[in-house]
Amino acid sequence: MGAPARHPDLDMDLDHLIRTVPDFPKPGIGFRDITPLLAHAHALEEAIDRMTTLFRASHVESVVAIESRGFLFGAPLAIRLGAGLVPCRKPGKLPAATRSRAYELEYGTATLEIHEDALEAGARVLICDDVLATGGTLEAAIGLVGDLGATVVGCATLIELEGLEGRARLRGTRVESLLQMPA
Ligand code: AMP
After folding, report:
1. d(CA 163, CA 59)
2. Which of 39, 117, 132, 166 has its CA 20 to 30 A from that of 14?
3. How many angstroms separate the alpha carbon of residue 183 from the centre of ligand 1?
């Protein structure tokens, strides 16, 4: 008989494994560094377990993971959910034909791309990233999934920065974050 299935440990404190680095990458930004959590075997598994539990009943067929830290959660999440993995990348990284969307950052703009044949029309898609801040990144990813004719069943992030109204910007989409922190 195999080992019993592991269930999420609701008491495990993941917050203390997020390190805030002041003034990175520019003055005034409090960067939420997830590397201590990634380095902790049980915490990493715990985070993936919690995301899986939140979306297990959503019949996810594809996980769209956002470059680059979204990849770290998207791949194990896709495996746990029995879904495929689709990378959503910065411009010029994907080799085949892409669809792209530009979006506003605090200073300037950014662009995300996805392979135009990456999703079946009507596919049930979960979008995954490490941090929800202003919501611009996830909004662009939701737009790309819609451009391909697929259906977003939700967004999963490890951290949500409160006070930036990111969640309000994504109204109409289910958004789940494991940790809520001040911006
Ligand atoms: P936004 O589009 O404003 O929601 O920003 C989310 C994206 O920017 C995510 O891909 C994050 O990796 C990154 N990000 C934004 N703010 C932070 C922060 N304070 N610490 C770490 N990553 C951040």
Report:
1. 31
2. 166
3. 10
